[in-house]
Structures are given as structure tokens and as C-alpha cells.
Amino acid sequence: MPTLQDIIYSVVAGRAARFMRMFLLFLAVVGITIWFDLRGYKNFYTQESMDNAQLARNISENKGYTTKFIRPLGIYLLNRNANHKIDEFLNTASSNRALWTIEQQDKYQRIVNSTDLKYPHPDIYNPPAYPMVLSWIMQILPFEYEIDTELKFLRYQPELLINIFNQFLFFIAVWIAFMLASRLFEEAVGWLTVVTLLGSEILWRFSASGLPTILLLIITLLLVWTLVLIEKGSNEDLWNPVRMVFLAILAGIILGVGTLTKYGFAVALFPVIFFIWFYSGLRRGLLCTLAIIGFVLVVAPWFYRNYELTGSPLGAASYSVYSETPYFTGTILERSLNPDFSRFRTSDIPEKLWTNVKEILSNDLPFFGGSWVGAFFLAGLLIPFRSSALRKLRVFTIISIICFIIVQALGKTALSSNSPVVNSENLLVVLSPIVFMFGCGFFYMLLEQVNLAELRPIFVGGFALLMSAPLLITLLFKPVHPIAYPPYYPPRIYEIGTWMEKNEFLMSDIPWSVAWYGNRDCIWLTLNSTGDYESVNARRQIQGLYLTSNTLDGRFISDWVRGEYEGWGMFIIDLLLKREVPTGFPLQKAPIGFFPEQLFLSDKERWVQ
Any idea what the Cα angle at residue 47 is, between residues 602 and 372, rounded to 5°? Predict the structure, then answer.
């Protein structure tokens, strides 16, 4: 039976004290989460979040990896690849179709159907890991996609559930970061890392964005932990070769899963191989080979699927390097039915690279994760660590940052312009837990130089408060309105979806939201209102056109006359000035209450009961 002294010790410094600290931290995390969801939550406001959500819903409803958000560029790539396959097929098959076998007829029909807009459209933009995870959540939790348009709307229930799931992933990432920091530094650094991560406004915004970034955060931490174990086992001869083989393959598998979450993450293969080659001892050649094999085994089936559909392992995502170049500014490339790549200059790529690298170095790098902890990490590069594991991991982090900067600069599209910080193209943010860990470690190294032990808690508390200031200001003084209008008002988009039959087709300047809220097939606004529009309409009749402030609120010269919407310029001018639909346009009916902020045109008055 424990004595009174044992009980007092347990409460003050033993297990009970540790339990109380964990319990208080749990209450604090729950409180911050509820507070943020009440004050800082916002419905989906990025194209990618709605795109991933509608894709996940299609998967959960057993519709395969198909999308209702259709891009003209995707049509072009599917058509080009299908035509190439048809030519190859006809060169090998009999010229007399009556002599074709049943297998040949089926194969030919599958190729033809892959380009037919009346069939489910395969998604060739998004990697599959995050939509697959969301689809499992949608099958487990009670998602309610219907919106009561008669009631006051604030939050969309499916988005709230996705938000809660991502916040749960965020807490897992914080816990892994704590364990890793405590292992490599000390427990105090681990706790300060937890506080700075939970105090990062940017990471909270990512957790409520519906983007795959938080999932990628966990994958990055697991990859780093695996590399730390490889380094420890190799250099201290603690483990047998079988365990080392397992860890190398595991590193490759984790890297592959990260690549299937965000294609740009594949660049982490270079720092991973560098780390294993230089820091894993005599078995480095074998371990590097096994890591590459593990990576290839994970990504190969999906890359083959994309190659079969588009002729590129990354699908349409590989064309992001062309975006935001002089000829393909804004959304021009994605909205092109027949892009003219002959006007693209080779020099455009290095120009895009250096322009975006300069911006990243000026704005993103000094404030990793929206916090000044990144500055402590950069300053700490001048300080040597006694631990060899920390020195090696810091080299890995630096190489990863360089690789991610290059990929982020080359892969920048209009997504980054529409949402400059919170977007899936922000690859650097996935390294923020590692950077925060090193930044907090450097802060404690500086703190050791201070002889006033009684002031130590004040310095630590001030550091944590300063790092969390942006989040505190948002929660205390600047509450966020949950509705992302303009241009997204979910009840209105949902209502448009109810006007259309399930098999009917729309065109919009925000097709991702029509696909998500309206649950209808919707193609992105083509480059012009005549030729491209008519080409799509001939393949599948367009019964509705939905325009928002994305287009209608554009600048006269920069957008309508010479910009990315110049093909719709006269159409929009007629609407705004003459308040009439141009003669000859097939959609002439419009409901009351949309114009001039928005416009919906249809082939008939569907809204009349």
C-alpha cells in the first residue's frame, strides 16, 4: 500500500503529475479547436478542396475514380491519347471490322468511350490517396449533402465533418512531432514544438481547408522518423539486417504514399536517397535500392493508369509547368480545348523558375508555417549540434527545402494566385513540424546561455506567445465569416443542381463548386463563347451556364478584352450594358435574383414549379 509520501511524490513529480499535464493539454486542445471552429472556421474556398471532396463522394458511391468537374484540357489530353491508340489499333487489326473478334470490338469501344462526354469522366488531375481516405470517411460518417434553401445558411455539414477529420489528423501530426522532438532533443523542446505547432494560424487554416496538406504533414513526419531509425540502426549496429531491410522498404513505401497524396512530393526521393547513401553505413547501396523499389511498387500502378489515359505518368498534372507562363497565364491552359504549345518557349521555364524562387525566398521561407520559428531554424544553421543524428537530419531538411522550392516554383498555377498561402501547391509547409522542432531546439540552446534560471519560464512563455500571436489575434479580434461569398454561396449552387436532371450538363467559371454542391457534371468555361463552346455543345448538349463574380467582376481591358476571358468579353459586355443575352446563343432563359452579381442561363425555365 502506497504511503502518503509516495502519493505526494506522484502528484508533484510522478505519474499523476504527468497525467495531469496531459489532461490539461487535452482540455486546452479541445478548447482551442472549439474556439477556432466558432471564430475562425470558413466553408471551402479553394478549388482543390471542392474538387477532392466531389471526387471522394463519387468514389464512396461506387462510381470509380471519376469526376464531375471537367476541364477542357483534360478532354484534349484524353482525345489525343485515344486517337493515338485508335491509330495503333487499326494498324494491327483487320481493315474489315466484321472480322474483328469480340475482344477486339470491346477494346475498340472502350477506347472510343473514354473520349465520350456522356460517359463518366475519369479524373486525370488529382493523386488518389486523399480522395480515397475521404471516401472512407464518407462511408462511415453520416454525410448530408442536401441543403435546405429556406433556412439561414452558415455551415455546410459535409465540409464541417471533413474539417473535423483533418483537425484530428492535425493532432496526430502534432503528437508525432512531439515524440520525434523529445527523442532527438529533450522533452522540453518537444513540448515547445507542440505549443508552436498548435499556435500556428496557417496550420489551423490548412486543417480547416479541406486540402490534403495535413495528411501529407503526417506522411512527412513518418518518413523522417523512419530515416532517423535507419541512421541509428546503421551507425550503432543495433539491429540485424532484416530490420534494416524492412526500414528501407518502409521509407520507400511512405514516400510513395506521399507522392500519391501530392505528386510534387516525389522530389523528396532525392534527399531520402542522399540521406540513406551517406548515413547508413556499409549497406547503403542495398538500402537505397530497396527504398527505390518500395517507392516504385507503390506509385507504378497509378502512374501506369495515368499513362494509359493520357500518355503521361502524372496525367494532366504534368502540364502545370506550362501554367503561369507568358502565353498560358491564369486559367488559360486548363480551359483550352486545343492548346497551342508551339507558342511556348523553352526559356519560359527558367524564367518561371527564377521569378517564383525569388518570391518564395522573399515571402515564404522566412516565415515557415506562418510563424517566426522558421527564422530561428535559419539562424540555427550556424550552430553545430553535438548529436550526429541532428546534424544529419538538418542536412536532410535543407536538401528537402531546396528541392521543394524548385518544385513549388515550377508547379505554380493559378491556384496559388487565387489562394496565395493556403493551397496544395505550398509544399514547404509540410516541412514545418521539422523546421519548428529545430527552431525550438535552437531557442533552448540560446536559453542555456541565460544564467537567470528564475526568468526561464518567462522567456519560454514569451516565445510561445509571440509565435502564436497571429492565431490569437484572429480568434480574439478578427472572427472569420464562414461563408466564402463571393463567389461561393452553397444554397444557390445546390438549388441550381436541383433544377437540372442528373444526366444534364452545365458550364461554369466555378465548375468545381457546381460538381460539389450541385452534384452535376460541369465543364470549365471554355476560352470563347463561340467555337469552343459550340464544339463542347456538339459532343454533349450544355443545358445551363452559370457565371459568377470570377468572370462578371473582371477588368474591362485586362480580363475581357485582352485577358483570360477575352473570348467571352463581348458576351459579358452585352449582358452588363444591354442586359440581354447575345442573339444566337442557345441558352436564353434566366431566373430573377441572380444578375448582376451572378448569372444563370438555361434552355428553359426550370425554376418555375
Answer: 155
Q: Which residue type, as a one-letter code, is found at position 156?
A: Y
What CA–CA distance (Å, rounded) separates 229 from 232?
Answer: 5
CA distance 452 to 174: 30
Cβ(94)–Cβ(182) under 8 Å? no
- Which set of grid coordinates corresponds to residue 198? 498548435
Query: How much is the pTM?
Result: 0.93
pLDDT for position 39:
86
- Measured in degrees and rounded to the nearest 5, phi and psi for residue 121 equal -90, 120
Of 470, 476, 477, 445, the closest CA to residue 459 belongs to 445
Domain segments of the chain as ranges = 159-477, 490-602
Reduce the DSSP state of residue 66 to 3 states and report it.
strand
pLDDT in tens, 219-236: 999 999 999 999 888 876
Q: Which helix (H) or strand (E) holds 76?
A: helix 72-92
SS3 state of residue 509: coil
My answer on whether omega of the bond before 487 falls inside 30° of 0, hence cis, is yes
Per-residue model confidence (pLDDT) at position 16: 67
Distances (CA, A) of 92 to 95, 102, 106, 470, 544: 9, 15, 15, 65, 42
CB-based contacts of 142, cutoff 8 Å, min separation 6: none
Residue count of the chain, please give it: 609
The four Cα atoms 109, 114, 120, 122 give a dihedral, to 10 degrees, of 140
β partners of residue 345: none
The label of the residue with cell 473514354 reads: 114
- CA–CA distance, 354 with 297 (Å, rounded to integer): 34
- Cα angle: 559, vertex 562, 567; to 5 degrees: 80
Give the H/E segment covering residue 445: helix 432-447
pLDDT-flagged residues of the chain (< 50): 9
Using CB atoms within 10 A of its CB, is residue 450 exposed (0-12), middle (13-18) or buried (19+)? exposed
Distance of alpha carbon 6 from its chain centroid, rounded? Answer: 51
Measuring CA to CA, how many Å separate 14 from each of 8, 17, 80, 433?
A: 9, 5, 68, 29
